Amino acid sequence: AAYWLDIDNEIDLDLSTFKYGNILESRHRGLESELSLHLSDKVSIQSAINYTDAVFNAGEENESQIKNVPEWTSASRLTTRPTDWVNLTFSHRFFGEVFLDDANTFTLPSFQLLDAQLLIQWKQVGLQLKAMNLLDKEYNSSGYVFFDNFTQDNVEFLYPARGRYLEAGIRYSR
After folding, report:
1. Spatial separation of the C-alpha atoms in residues 169 and 174, rounded to whole Å
2. Each residue's pLDDT tens digit in the chain (174 positions)?
3. Phi then psi for 59, rounded to 5 degrees?
4. What angle do CA 102, 95, 52 make, to 5 degrees?
């Protein structure tokens, strides 16, 4: 799928003040693609790749990328079903580099994550185990730039993401 949106007065959250403001004019263009392959009754692969060109369309930052919006993202997963009651999925997620400021001078690097999920389904009861960020990658999920009056310089503030973590759950369906 392809899209092109010209937006007036887009709402923008300023992470340095946690206040909303408006972007006078912006343009969002992109491509979204997805592929699913069922290799057998027990193995499937899914992959999605997205490109986003989200830029200011007016003002002093004209044509600059809108902050905290990656140009590239992707997600892929391999799912196998070794038995009728066991489902095992391995996932890869990629988030491209983003700018932390409207002038596009500060960047947050891209990152990739690997995850795994085990689902054991027995009749109406399912046990789900997830291991997220398997490689315990240290990365920052987002951030902002704030002008420090004391040092008279711009300072990056970053939001660190979780390292490896596990989730477990039980599902019941009728």
Report:
1. 17
2. 999 999 999 988 877 677 888 898 999 999 999 999 999 999 999 999 999 999 999 888 888 999 999 999 999 999 999 999 999 999 999 999 999 998 999 999 999 999 999 999 999 999 999 999 999 999 999 999 988 889 999 999 999 999 999 999 999 988
3. 85, -175
4. 60
Give the C-alpha separation, 111 to 137, whole Å: 8
Question: Which DSSP string do the residues of 117-142 spell out, in sequence order?
Answer: EEEEEETTEEEEEEEESTT----EEE
Structure tokens at 84: 């009728």
Pairing of strands 98-99, 86-95: unpaired
Instruction: Assess contact for 103 and 137: CB atoms under 8 A.
Output: no
In sequence order, the 6+-apart residues with CB closer than 8 A to the CB of 17 are none
Q: What's the pTM?
A: 0.86
Look up residue 160 and give its amino acid.
Answer: P
* DSSP code per residue over 72-106: EEEEEEEEEEEETTEEEEEEEEEE--EESSTTS-S
